[in-house]
Structures are given as C-alpha cells and as structure tokens.
Amino acid sequence: MRIVAITGGPGSGKSTVAAAFARRGWAVLSADEVAHAVVEPGTACFGRIVSFLGSGVVAPDGRLDRAAVAARVFDPANACLRPNGRVASDYLIELEAIVHPAVRKALARRTKELAGSPGVVWEVPLLFEAGLEGDAESVVAVVVPEEVMLQRLVNKGLTASEAIARIRAQMPIAQKAKLSDYVVAGDLAPEDLDAAVAAIIKGKK
C-alpha cells in the first residue's frame, strides 16, 4: 500500500491537499490528531511531559493544558537558531523527543489497519524534523508565502507574534520543498489541486 506524506508550514494548506486525496478514496491520517492521542492522561508521554514541564501544564480536567504547553515551548525568549534553520527552544526540542517516537509507532500501526485502502496519506507538519520522511513512498510539500501562513494563523485566533513563533519554529518551507518529491501550492483553485493530486497518485512530476 502506498504512503504519501504531506508536509508544510503551519497554515500552508496541508489539510486541503489531504482532503483532495481523500476524495479519491485515500485514507488520511493526521499526525496532529495522533499526537493528541499519545499524550492523553495515563500514557507514557503524558507522564514524561508533566515531569519535564511541571504540573502547571495540566488542565483542571486532567489533560494537558495546550495553551500552557505552547506558552512554554514557543516562548521567543527561549528560542535559538538550529542547524536545520528552525528557531526553536530547548523546551520544544525536548518535547518533540518525547512525542515523535510515539507518533511514529502510532502512524505505522494505524496504517496497517487501513490495508484495504488504495493508499494512505500522512499529514505531518514536522515530517523532516521528526525524521519520518523515509517511512513514506513520496513526500509532498505544500507551500504558500509566509505572509499567507501568518494571516491564516491570525485568522484562527493566534496573535501575530504567536503565529510568527510557530512558523519560525519549523524548518523553513523552502528547505522542506527542496527535500520533497513534489511541491504543491497551498492556494490552488479546486480543479488545479485535483489535477495536481491526480498526477502525484500516478507518479508523475
């Protein structure tokens, strides 16, 4: 069964491209959704995160307080430039070291459960950062200008500074595009996106 991984910056349009694959019968697995599952209370990841970041990141309902976690790991005051072009804090790097292996295992397990599908799409924002690119047959980078990503994130409720921190905390989109097998614009008209996805499914570049 074919596995195509979709990556890109925050707000680049990854979900829209994944939906185009779904319309052609492909199953879609979201790494973000998987990541939420692997940090539920009682999981090993949950315990390690609380030990690392402290009990202040636990919400009244016993789950992780995602706003509190984000405030810690995306704090620009703690960020520094990484060799791969990211501007990320040590807190974020350590958090990813806890979560990414569990996400990788969960994606592999869920993919096996979808053996009847013509193909599976992994929507993975941090594909290269997590070292998951080798687990997919091909990689699609979804790209838009940074100002478009910024506006989309602000429209979702982030402040401009929060949006910028999230964008810069990932590998630069130009680098992701260079490492990918296919590059798709995240603002294509529906018919153009459908044609681009059809070409990827056929293996055409």
Polypeptide structure, described:
The chain contains ten helices and seven strands. A hairpin with a 5-residue loop joins strand 3 (79-81) and strand 4 (87-89). A five-stranded parallel beta sheet has the order 2-5-1-6-7, sandwiched between helices. It has a two-stranded antiparallel sheet with strand order 3-4. It is globular. The two termini are 20 Å apart. It has one domain (2-202): Rossmann fold. It is of the alpha/beta class. The protein has helices at residues 14-22, 31-38, 44-53, 66-73, 90-112, 127-130, 146-155, 160-168, 173-179, 190-202, and strands at residues 2-8, 27-30, 79-81, 87-89, 119-123, 138-143, 182-185. Helix 2 crosses helix 5 (90-112), helix 3 packs antiparallel against helix 5 and helix 7 (146-155) packs across helix 8.
**What characteristic shape results from the CA principal axes?**
globular
Distance between the termini: 20 Å
Radius of gyration: 17 Å
Q: What's the name of the CATH homologous superfamily?
A: P-loop containing nucleotide triphosphate hydrolases
Helix content range: 40-55%
- The assigned structural class equals alpha/beta
